[in-house]
Design a protein that fits this description.
This protein has helices spanning about 5-25, 45-60, 65-70, 75-85, 85-95, 105-110, 135-140, 175-180, 185-190, 225-245, and strands at about 120-125, 140, 145-155, 160-165, 170, 195, 210. The protein is an alpha+beta fold. The two termini are about 30 Å apart.
Length: about 260
C-alpha cells in the first residue's frame, strides 16, 4: 500500500468512519438491518476495502488483475474502485494532511506554512489522447513527447508540498501557468526560490529567484558559470525527490485510464 503499519492503522480509523458515512449517503431505501449485519461480504469489510483502494493506488492495476487478486469479478472491482476512491481524500482532509489548493493572501500563506518556500516545478501526468484532433494538440507536451496534464507545486526543503496548482493541459508553458495561477506572489514573498529554466524571465520580476544560467545562442557556459549551475541544481533536486515520492504510487505516474471531465 505504500504506507507503514502505523500510518495504515491511523488512516484505517478515519477510513472506517468515512466508509460508514458513504454507505448511509448512498443507501437508496431504508435499511432493514444495520450496516455490517447479514452475510459477510469480504469486499465491504473496512480493512479489506482500505487495502484494496490503497493497493490499487500503489500498483494501479487493471480491473481484471484486481479482481483476480481480491476474488472479485472485474465489474465488481470497477464498482468498488469508483466507490472507494474519494474516501482516502476525505481521511486526509480530516487529519489536515493535504496541501492547500488556493490561498487568498501572503499572510495566509505565512500563517499556514511558516517555513521558507524553496522551489517550484511542474509534474507531468500521462493522459489518454482525446479523439478530437484539436483537443489532442492542446494536451500534447513537446517536452515529454506524449499527451499530458501538468501541475505546479510549491514545496520546502523538507520535501513537503505546500500548494499544488490545478491541472492544466500539457501544452501550457510553465511560466504562463505560474502567472495565471497567481502563485508567484506567495513564492516571491516566502523567501528564496529555486526554479528551473522553464520559468525563464521570473528572475527579472523578483530579486529572490535563483535560476540556472541559460546557455547563450551558439556559445557554451563559461568555467565560472558551470559550478554555479551545479550548485543551484543540487539545491533544486530536493524538489525532484518530492515528485519521485508521489510517483511511487503508479496511479500518479502511469497513463490515467479513467474519464476526464474537461478532456
Amino acid at each position: 500500500t505504500g504506507l507503514k503499519r502505523k500510518a495504515f492503522d491511523e488512516l484505517l480509523q478515519a477510513f472506517c468512519i468515512q466508509l460508514e458515512l458513504e454507505a448511509i449517503a448512498n443507501s437508496q431505501k431504508p435499511r432493514l438491518r444495520n450496516i455490517g449485519e447479514g452475510e459477510k461480504y469480504d469486499g465491504y469489510r473496512p480493512k479489506t476495502s482500505h487495502v484494496f483502494i490503497k493497493f490499487n493506488f500503489k500498483c494501479y492495476l487493471t480491473f481484471d488483475v484486481a479482481g483476480v487478486l481480491f476474488y472479485l469479478h472485474r465489474s465488481t472491482a470497477h464498482y468498488w474502485m469508483l466507490r472507494l476512491q474519494p474516501l482516502p481524500l476525505e481521511c486526509f482532509q480530516e487529519k489536515m494532511a493535504l496541501p492547500e489548493r488556493k490561498l487568498q493572501s501572503i499572510e495566509e500563506f505565512i500563517t499556514r506554512f511558516p517555513s521558507t518556500t524553496e522551489m517550484m516545478i511542474e509534474l507531468h501526468k500521462a493522459y489518454p489522447a482525446p479523439k478530437d484532433y484539436q483537443k489532442q494538440k492542446h494536451h500534447y507536451s513537446g517536452k515529454k513527447k506524449y499527451h499530458t496534464r501538468k501541475h505546479l507545486i510549491i514545496k520546502d526543503s523538507k520535501k513537503r508540498a505546500f500548494v499544488p496548482s490545478s491541472s492544466r493541459k500539457g501544452k501550457v508553458h510553465d511560466k504562463r501557468q505560474l502567472d495565471e495561477e497567481q502563485l508567484v506572489d506567495f513564492v516571491s514573498s516566502g523567501g528564496k526560490s529555486n526554479v528551473d529554466l522553464g520559468f525563464q524571465g521570473l528572475q527579472k520580476e523578483f530579486v529572490n529567484i535563483k535560476i540556472p544560467r541559460k546557455k547563450r545562442l551558439g556559445k557554451e557556459l563559461t568555467e565560472e558559470e558551470k559550478p554555479l549551475n551545479r550548485k543551484k541544481s543540487s539545491a533544486r533536486v530536493k524538489c525532484e525527490h518530492t515528485i519521485s515520492g508521489v510517483k511511487r504510487y503508479n496511479a500518479a505516474r502511469e497513463l490515467y485510464r479513467n474519464h476526464i471531465k474537461d478532456g
